[in-house]
Amino acid sequence: MTPPSAPLPPVPRVAGRILDAQLHLMDRQVLDHDGVPVTTVDDLEVSGPALDVEIEPGTAPPVITALLTGAVLGTRIFGGRAPSSRLIRIPWKDVAEVEVVVRLGVSGELLDASWVERWVRDKIIARIPGGRHDPR
What we know:
Layout: H1 21-25, E1 29-31, E2 37-40, E3 43-47, E4 63-70, H2 73-78, E5 87-91, E6 95-98, E7 102-104, H3 115-123
Parallel strand pairs: 1-7
Antiparallel strand pairs: 1-2, 3-4, 4-5, 6-7
């Protein structure tokens, strides 16, 4: 017969929300505060203890500092990791909510993540006759 086990101590409450990075963030579409698509989440920048070792009790958990996006298609096909200088950082403080999509609290025009679309719009599309206005 096994002795009665002691009740488990209550789980301490944590301020904020616990996210599973793979499930809730990776490859999610990022929308600005107007609902305009900006980019997708390719990677995360975290601060705190290393993620590949066991975290000691009492140690603060890792904290997301930025969403990373950029040209990672080649690394997904051939392996490896994109140089950090090629990745664009969206500060975590700009994230308003995480649901089916990641919504930002700022305009996408202000972010470096949409520079390619702005360049194509201004340098190529604007030069096409009728490309400077919305079709009616």
